[in-house]
């Protein structure tokens, strides 16, 4: 599925990722935790190809394809989905037309016929229901005037619609109350089918009570410094990142 | 992203073809004898010729305005031909079957079939080719409703009383430099009269095409909506791709009598010049409407073409409770320059106006909104709302806003809102991460930005306008 080998990446000449290795197999859920500034969000941007995020060394492949060689939209069409921490608004463009274009761009890439308006609407309605979004969200501008929680649920709704093979969730729990967290987690869990893989980037263990990870990795200073199973997250919850040394303790305070 | 955008705007202008059509074209230059010849070609009555000559003499005294935020070499008015007509039009074809098939073919290529059975149902078209109207469709059907829709040259012959009464009544001969020039040399255009209480049974539309080299197009449109009548009118325009600049100086006058309603939409796609600013149309146009009591005039324009645009469709709200609206999308790219906006002149009581202007700049273009809202001393309770938004694509273009507000009535309310935004990297990244390519993403963002204006266009044309915008943006991201 996803294979990252000795990845080094920088933003504005500042090296953020410093030799990261990660193997994600089909159906697995990997949680990435770590203190602020460790490079958690950067990893998602680098993998999805955001401009300004330079790869200086290393390799990353998705289903055998060289990710780093592809444009942003090509990576998306290959099945990589990034759920944004702060989704941006696109005023005047309805969620519906945006998602229909998006779904059909992916279908075209797979050599499938585009969905008709009716077919699309049916799927979109089902996806909305799954994350508890009222149907009128489809008519509203993309993220336009959505609350923080609505934006997050909207991201999960998109993920359900686009049926990616690898989902990267960038702090999809931040700013959510317990009920909203449950909705987001249920949305994600419904998509776990033994084939689809997830990278769950989070600051808090809390989300992992709802989305059970197969592996937990601690990212610090651009590298994975510790890996384990779900119990590692609990350990972090209890004693913080003290084991990383003093500097991180303060950064996380 | 900026780097991608900086890359050349490589899109081809789709209407840029030239058609080999034999034509009678006047030699270049302008003097009294040219005006007499134009008038004679059109077989005009004496009063019309006199009117033209008066305009010409005023024009000679006037100076070309230079206050607009545009920069172009001065036009040599002696290097232009003021009349060009396809040869086949000499003996006035009586019906569509007699129209030169090559001419019809030009319009077919532009996606405007003139055979009525092939046309969009419910849209009547007047096709103006260089200086003459070649065909007007659905005339009989309109005639049944009492609606007059014909070339203005024909109206001068057939309905001289109407023309004489209203021509120059909204845009006087001496209104401005280009209006005076137009009044002297106008060659064709459309005339519309909607009788009292009649709701025009179909959309009316005029399609302007400049074909010949070194010719100017000076059309004149006059629409009179009698009391309580309704009409929706649309104009479209294209021209071949040429290295030299061509002048288009039109005048449009709208008269909305008591309780009448005129909706005037423009999809302007004159050749904009190449990416280095070579060639393209100078679009210097005066458009104005007058509203009597309880009347309404609504201007909607989608402007994507022309090298230089100087255009301010305006409303004189003379009657009490009259309403003026202006909805505009102006897109500039390459080296295009646009200085466009509106004037809302509130004279009557409880007059209302709305201005929604969306300017989009890409490439190395400059896009200016210039608007005047004037509240006269008697405009008790008048209201205006102006919203003026600019969207920048890339970092080498300019957006400018010049709002003028003059209020001489303490009870009048004027609101002005303005925003400037960029197509942000974040928006592009979100769209691309969802599988859309950059071009599709930009055109979607721009379409969203323009939505408030597009929804004012007649259905068929809203789709066309969206597509036009998409084509115009092609290549604006690398």
Features:
heterodimer, A: 253 residues, alpha/beta, Rossmann fold, six-stranded mixed beta sheet, four-stranded antiparallel beta sheet, 9 helices, 28% strand, B: 478 residues, eleven-stranded mixed beta sheet, 11 helices, 23 strands, disordered N terminus
Question: Can you put this structure into words, describing what you see?
Answer:
The complex is a heterodimer of chains A (253) and B (478). Chain A has 253 residues and is of the alpha/beta class. Helix content of chain A is 37%, strand content 28%. Chain A has one domain (2-252): P-loop containing nucleotide triphosphate hydrolases (Rossmann fold, 3-Layer(aba) Sandwich). Chain A has helices at 40-48, 72-77, 95-109, 117-130, 148-162, 178-190, 206-210, 230-239, 246-252, and strands spanning 2-11, 14-24, 29-33, 53-62, 65-66, 80-83, 90-94, 141-142, 166-170, 197-201, 215-220, 223-228. Chain B is an alpha/beta fold and 478 residues long. Chain B has helices at 2-6, 32-41, 46-61, 101-109, 139-144, 152-158, 160-166, 177-185, 425-433, 438-454, 459-473; strands spanning 23-25, 84-86, 123-129, 132-136, 148-151, 190-194, 203-209, 220-225, 230-238, 245-248, 251-256, 261-268, 280-291, 296-303, 308-311, 314-317, 323-332, 337-346, 352-361, 366-375, 383-392, 398-407, 413-422. In chain B, strands 5, 6, 8, 10, 11, 13, 15, 16, 18, 20 and 22 form an 11-stranded mixed sheet that branches. The N and C termini of chain B lie close together (9 Å). The model of chain B is unreliable at 1-10 (pLDDT under 50). Chain A binds chain B through residues 48, 50-52, 71-73, 76-77, 81-82, 84, 87-88, 90-93, 97-99, 101-102, 105-106, 109, 141-142, 158, 162, and chain B through 1, 424-427, 429-438, 440, 444-445, 447-452.
């Amino acid at each position: 599925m996803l294979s990252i080998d000795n990845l080094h990446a920088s933003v504005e000449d500042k090296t953020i990722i410093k030799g990261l290795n990660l193997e994600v197999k089909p159906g697995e859920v990997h949680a990435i935790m770590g203190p602020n500034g460790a490079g958690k969000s950067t990893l998602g941007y680098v993998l999805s190809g955001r401009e300004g995020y330079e790869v200086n060394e290393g390799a990353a492949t998705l289903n055998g394809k060289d990710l780093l060689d592809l444009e942003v939209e090509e990576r998306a069409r290959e099945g990589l989905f990034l759920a944004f921490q702060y989704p941006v608004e696109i005023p005047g463009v309805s969620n519906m037309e945006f998602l229909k274009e998006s779904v059909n761009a992916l279908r075209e890439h797979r050599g499938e016929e585009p969905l008709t308006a009716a077919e699309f609407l049916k799927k979109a309605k089902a996806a909305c229901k799954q994350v508890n979004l009222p149907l009128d969200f489809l008519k509203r501008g993309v993220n336009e005037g959505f609350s923080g929680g609505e934006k997050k649920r909207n991201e999960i709704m998109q993920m359900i619609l686009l049926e990616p093979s690898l989902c990267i969730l960038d702090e999809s729990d931040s700013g959510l109350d317990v009920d909203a967290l449950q909705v987001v987690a249920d949305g994600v869990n419904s998509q776990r089918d033994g084939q689809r893989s997830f990278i769950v980037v989070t600051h808090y263990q809390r989300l992992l009570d709802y989305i059970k990870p197969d592996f937990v990795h601690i990212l610090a200073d651009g590298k994975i410094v510790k890996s384990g199973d779900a119990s590692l997250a609990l350990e972090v919850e209890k004693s913080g990142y003290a084991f990383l040394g003093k500097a991180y303790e303060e950064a996380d305070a | 992203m900026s780097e991608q955008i900086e890359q050349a705007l490589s899109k081809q202008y789709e209407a840029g073809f030239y058609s080999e059509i034999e034509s009678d074209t006047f030699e270049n230059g302008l003097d009294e004898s040219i005006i007499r010849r134009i008038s004679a070609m059109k077989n005009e009555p004496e009063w019309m010729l006199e009117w033209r000559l008066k305009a010409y003499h005023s024009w000679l005294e006037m100076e070309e305005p230079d206050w607009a935020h545009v920069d172009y070499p001065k036009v040599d008015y002696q290097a232009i031909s003021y009349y060009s007509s396809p040869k086949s039009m000499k003996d006035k074809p009586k019906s569509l079957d007699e129209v030169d098939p090559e001419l019809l073919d030009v319009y077919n290529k532009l996606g405007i079939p003139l055979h009525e059975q092939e046309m969009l149902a419910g849209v009547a078209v007047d096709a103006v080719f260089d200086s003459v109207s070649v065909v007007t469709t659905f005339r009989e059907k309109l005639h049944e409703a009492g609606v007059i829709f014909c070339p203005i040259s024909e109206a001068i012959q057939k309905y001289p009383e109407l023309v004489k009464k209203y021509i120059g009544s909204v845009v006087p001969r001496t209104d401005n430099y280009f209006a005076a020039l137009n009044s002297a040399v106008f060659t064709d255009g459309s005339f519309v009269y909607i009788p009292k209480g009649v709701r025009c049974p179909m959309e009316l539309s005029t399609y302007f095409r400049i074909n010949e080299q070194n010719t100017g197009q000076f059309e004149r449109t006059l629409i009179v909506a009698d009391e309580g009548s309704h009409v929706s009118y649309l104009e479209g325009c294209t021209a071949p791709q040429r290295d030299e600049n061509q002048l288009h100086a039109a005048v449009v006058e709208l008269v909305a009598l008591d309780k009448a309603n005129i909706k005037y939409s423009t999809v302007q796609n004159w050749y904009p010049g190449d990416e280095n600013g070579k060639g393209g149309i100078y679009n210097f146009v005066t458009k104005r409407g007058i509203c009597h009591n309880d009347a309404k005039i609504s201007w909607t324009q989608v402007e994507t073409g022309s090298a230089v645009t100087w255009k301010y469709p305006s409303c004189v709200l003379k009657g009490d409770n009259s309403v003026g609206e202006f909805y505009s999308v102006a897109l500039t790219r390459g080296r295009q320059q646009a200085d466009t906006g509106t004037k809302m002149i509130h004279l009557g009581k409880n007059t209302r106006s709305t201005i929604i202007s969306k300017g989009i700049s890409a490439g190395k273009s400059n896009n200016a909104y210039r608007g005047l809202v004037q509240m006269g001393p008697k405009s008790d309770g008048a209201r205006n709302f102006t919203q003026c938004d600019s969207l920048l694509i890339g970092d080498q273009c300019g957006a400018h806003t010049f709002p003028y507000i003059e209020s001489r009535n303490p009870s009048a309310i004027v609101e002005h809102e303005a925003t400037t935004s960029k197509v942000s990297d974040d928006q592009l990244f979100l769209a691309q991460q969802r599988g859309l390519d950059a071009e599709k993403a930009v055109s979607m963002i721009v379409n969203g930005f323009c939505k408030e204006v597009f929804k004012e266009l007649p259905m068929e044309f809203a789709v066309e306008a969206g597509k036009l915008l998409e084509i115009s943006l092609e290549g604006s991201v690398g």
